[in-house]
Amino acid sequence: MPGRLMEPDGALIPFSTEVDVPLYNIQHGVKLPIFRIFVSWSRSNLLQVACIRPFEDDFNNEEDTGTSDGGDLGGKVVEVKLGASDPQISEAQRRRIAYGSVSPFAFLQGRKNALAMMSRMSSSSFGDWWQHVLEYSRSILELLENTNPPSRSVIEDPRIVLKLVNKPTGLKAAWQLMEMFYVDKHSLTWLPEQLVDWVAEYDCILSETEVTVHSKLFKLQEKLVNLQVIEDDPEYWEALSSALTVGWLDAVVKLLRLHGSYQLNQMDSRETENGLVEAVAVLVSTMPRLRHDLPAGKLGQCYKTKPDFIKAWEKWRGQITKLDCSAFWVHCGHRQTREGLRNLLQIMLGNMNNISNASFHWMELFVSHFLYIKPLTMSFEEMHRLAQKCLQLKSSSLSNGLTRLIVGALGENIEVVIAECSKSFGPWYGMKCILLMITHALELLAADSNQNEILFSERYNLGGISIVELHRIVYAQVLFSHSLTSQIAPTYLASCPKQGLGLLEISLSRQPVQNYTLILKDLEICRLYELDKICSFVKKITGMHQWKHGRKGSGIYWFQKAGDESRLNQIAQQLFECIGSSNTNETFKQWEGLIELLGPDVGTAGGLGFLHRYRDFKNSLRHVQYGRATDTARHSVELLIQLLKSPSTPQLLWLPLLHDSVKLLNWKDRPLLNAAETNLLLSKLQELSMLQLLPDSPQLDLPPLELASIRLALATNLSRAFLEE
Amino acid sequence: MADSGDLQLFRYPQSKFVDAVRWLHPVSAFDRFIATAVHDTDDASSAVEIHSLSFSPESRNPNKPLLHLRSNWPSPSRISALRTSETHQKHVVAAVSTFAGSVHFLFVDPVDVSIDLELSNDECQPMHNGPVSAVDLQSGGHECVSVGEDGRVNLVSVGEGRLDSQQLHDNRGLISYTAVRWGSQAEFATGGFGFGLQWWDKRKPGGLVSQFKGNWDQKNTTGIVHSIDIHPSRKHISVVGGSSGTVFAWDLRWQQQPILLSGVSLSGTGRSTCESEIWEIQYDIHAQTSSISSTSSTKILPVMACSEDGILAVIEQGKPHTELLAEDCAINSFNIDPQNPADVVCALEWESIGILMRAKESASVY
C-alpha cells in the first residue's frame, strides 16, 4: 500500500492537513509498523528515505501481528524526487547559472569591500555604486538568457508581424523588473516606457492559459497565410487594436499595410479608404514617446525632455482629433475598415472603454495607461493605485509571481518583494532556482540605499543575522548539497559576516572522503579561508577512512599531515601486538614497511622511536642467524641494551626482547653480555614477574616455561661473564 | 570568448562533470577527435564520449570550432583515468580505468570513431582493490600499466577476447600510487604520497629499480604526485606535478637531487606559479619545437601544467612562467594535441570542455 501518511494510523509525525504543504507519496512496501525513518540527501534533488521495521525477534513476540507473509523485508530505502520536473530550467542549466553567477558576485563583493575601505579613508560616498551593481546585473541577465540564439532569416517577410524567438524565462523577466525598479537610477525617470518595453518582451509568458496580446497576434499570424481579404476578418481588427494598446507600433503599422486597399488592382476604387488607412498608419508611427532613445527599427518619435514631449504630444493629439472628425469617414465604403480605424483612433485618444476592450492581461491595461491616458511620469503611489485598479478590472487574469512582484515593488515594500520572490517562483522553477535568484537579487535590492537598513540590519528572529545573510546561507547550503556545486558555496559563505565561516566549517567537515582528489579540493578551500582546524580534521577523517580500507600507507600519511599523534601511537601499539605475537618473514616485511612509512621524525609521534630501534635490532639479529661474526652479534647486544634502557619501550615488548636475547646469551664463542648488562636483563625479567602479581596490572601472558628458559640462559651467561672478567 | 592576442579559448558546456580529456590520434590530418570521460550526477552514470571537432564558416563565430558528439561508451563505474594511444592494428586504443578497480580497452575506428570493441579484465578477479588511480598506455597501444591506492602495480595486455593482467608488485596498501607514466617499452615511473617516486623495469624480478623519497614537503601541506611525464628523447628525466604548486624534475642520474621548477622547497626558495594542486603536467611540445635541438641534455624542457586555482601555464627552467589561462574554476585535466601542438583541450571544473588555440607560427615566443 502506498505510504499514506495522512491516515491517522499510519502517520509517524502528526501534522494538520489544513496547512498547504507539498505531499509526496512513498511506495516503500514495508509492512507496518515502521519504527524508524532515516532521511538523507542523495544526489541533486533526490531524497533517500530509509524505512526500518523493528527487529524480527521483537516482532514475533507480538502475537496479533502476522509474520512473514510477503513483508519479509527488514526495511527499504526509497528515493523521492522533490520538486516537479522543471519545465523551463533543467538541473544542468540551473547549475550553469550557478557557476556563471559566482564570478560576478565575487567581483561585486570585492568592489564593495574596496569601496568601503576607500570611504573609510577618504570619506567619499557610494555615489556611483549603482553603476557597479548594474554591471553585475547585466552579467547575470546574460546568464538567464535562453542559450540558443534566435534564428535570423535574411529576407524579411512582410507577413511576419511577430518575431518568433525563444520563450524568455520567467526568471529573466523577474530579474529585469528588479533591475528596473532598484538598480538603474537612469531608468527611474522613464519607468513607464521601461514597463512598456518589458511587456513587449515578456507578454508571451504573462499567462500560460489565458489570451494575451501576444497569443492573439500569434494566432492571427498563423492565419495570415491563408487569408484573402484580410480586412473582412474581425480578428484582424481585434489584433490591431490589441497591439496598439500595448504600444507595439511596428506590428500595428505592418498589419495596416497588409490592408487590402494597398493592392494595386484595388487602388482606384478604394482611394479614400486607403488614404484613411495610411493616415492612421502615419499617425501611429509618429507617436511621441518620452524616453532616452528608441532602439533601431522601433517606431515613434523620441523626446528626451518633458516640455518638448508635451508640445509634440499636444500636436499629435490634435492631428488625431482632426482625423477623427474628418468628413472622409463618410466616403469610406468598407464598414469594418471604418469601424476598425476609428477604434484605433479612440485608443490613441485614450478612450478607456476601447482600451479596456482591446487588452487582456492587467499588465497590458496597465501599460496602455502610460501610453495613451497619462503619459507623464507618475509617482510610485499613483502607479500602485493604478495597478490595483487594473487588477480589479482584469480580475480574470490569474495573479502570478510576476504580478505580485510588480505590485510589491510599486508599493515600495521590499519585504513583500523578497517574500514574493521566494514564494511565487516556487511552482515555476523549483526551490534551488529561487534561492539562486534571491541571493543574487538581494544584491540588486541593496543597490538602493534606502533599502539597506531593512536588508542589512540584524534581526533577532533570524538568530541575529540580516535578511541578506540568511538568504546567502540558505543558498550556500543548497549548493553544498550537490557534489558539483559544493565547490562554489564558500564564495557565498565568505560574504556572511556572522555565521558564514561557522557553516563553512561544518559543511566542509561533512564532505565525503572517498576520493582523494575531492579531499584535496576541500583542503584547498580550507587553505584559502585559513581554516586550519578543519583542515586537520578532514585529514584525520581521511586517514581513518584509508586505514580502514587497508590503504595503510596513505592512512599514516594523512595522520602525519594532520599531526594526529594519538592515532599514530595507536597504530604503533597495534603494530607491536602483531609483531610481538608472530615473527614470520612475511609480517616482518609488512611492519618494516610500516615503520619506514612512519618516517624518520617519529620522535615527534610519541613512543614510536623505539620501533625503529626494534627494527634495527631485529635486522641485526637476522644477520646473526646467517653469519657467525661476533661483531654483528655484539652490535645486536648494544641495540638490545639500548632498547631495554629506553623508557619509551613498552613493557609489552620486554618479553619478546628477552626471548630474542636467549640466542645471544647462548653465544658459543664467548659471553657477549657483561655482568652489568646481564643484571639489567635480569632486573627487567624480575620486574615483569612482579607485574604479573599486581592486581591492577595489564594481563601479561608469561608462559612459565619460557620464563624459566630465559632465567637459565641469563644465569649461565652471568657466570660466564664473571669468569671472563 | 577570445582571449588576448594569440590565444583563443572556446568553452563547451557539457551538463556533466568532465573527469578527463584526451585527443584521439586520427588517421587523416583533416579529422580531429577528442575523447572525454564524463560523469552525469543526475543519474549517476559515467561514460566515454568521443567528439569530433570541425569548423563551420556558417556559424556565428566562424573561428569557433564546433564540437559534435560522435560516439559514446557507457562505463560501469566512474572513470578515474583515460589514456589514448596511436593507431594500433587499424584501431585507436583508449585505456580507461574506473573507481571500481577495473581497466577497459576501447578500440575505436579511426575514420568514423565508432567504438568497435571493448575489452575488460575478468570481473571475478578485480585487478585493484579499490579505485585505480592512474593508467598509462604504451605508445603501441597493446600494453598498459595500472596503479592504485591499494599498492598494486599491474601490467595489462590484450589477450584472447579479454584483457590479461599480470601483477608486477603488491605492497598491500603500504604505498599508494597516484600517478604512472611509461618511460620506454619496459620501464615506467610511478608516484605517490609524500612526493615519493619509483622507477620500475618490468624485465627485472620484483620490478623496482630505484626510488626517491621526497620528504621535503612541509608538515601542513600535502605532497601528492598527481602527474608524471617523460620525454621520449630524455628517458632519464621524469617531470612531476603535485600538491602545493610543486613541479620538479627527477633525474635518474642524480636521484637524490630533484630539480625544483615551481613550488616552495624546504629552503623557501623556488618560484611559484600557484600554491594549489597541479593536477596534470605534460611536456609542451609546441614550445619545444624550436628549442629542442639547441638545448643541452641537462636542461629541462618546457612543461605545461594545469592547477586547481584555474591556471594553465608553461613552466620553463630559469625563466618566468607563461600563464596561458587563468580561469575562475579549476582545470582538472588537459592534453596537448600531438598533431597540432598549438592546440590544447582542457576539462574545466564547471562542467565544460575548453579548447585553447595558440598562434601556430609564434612558437619561438615561449
Automatic annotation (TrEMBL), chain A:
Gene Ontology biological process: mRNA export from nucleus; positive regulation of DNA-templated transcription; protein import into nucleus
Family the UniProt entry places it in: Belongs to the nucleoporin Nup85 family.
InterPro entries in alphabetical order: Nucleoporin_Nup85
Record key words, sorted: Membrane, mRNA transport, Nuclear pore complex, Nucleus, Protein transport, Translocation, Transport
Organism listed in the record: Platanthera zijinensis
Subunit organization: Component of the nuclear pore complex (NPC).
Molecular function per GO: structural constituent of nuclear pore
Name of the molecule in the record: Nuclear pore complex protein Nup85
Main location (coarse class): nucleus
Keyword Cell membrane in annotation: no
Function description: Functions as a component of the nuclear pore complex (NPC).
Localization per Swiss-Prot or TrEMBL: Nucleus, Nuclear pore complex
Cellular component, GO, one term: nuclear pore outer ring
Automatic annotation (TrEMBL), chain B:
Gene Ontology CC terms, in alphabetical order: nuclear pore outer ring
Domain of life, source organism: Eukaryota
Localization: Nucleus
InterPro entries linked to this entry: WD40/YVTN_repeat-like_dom_sf (IPR015943), WD40_repeat_dom_sf (IPR036322)
Tagged with keyword Oxidoreductase: no
Keywords: Nucleus, Repeat, WD repeat
Alphabetical list of PANTHER family matching this protein: NUCLEOPORIN NUP43 (PTHR22652:SF0)
Name of this protein: Nuclear pore complex protein NUP43
Native source species: Platanthera zijinensis
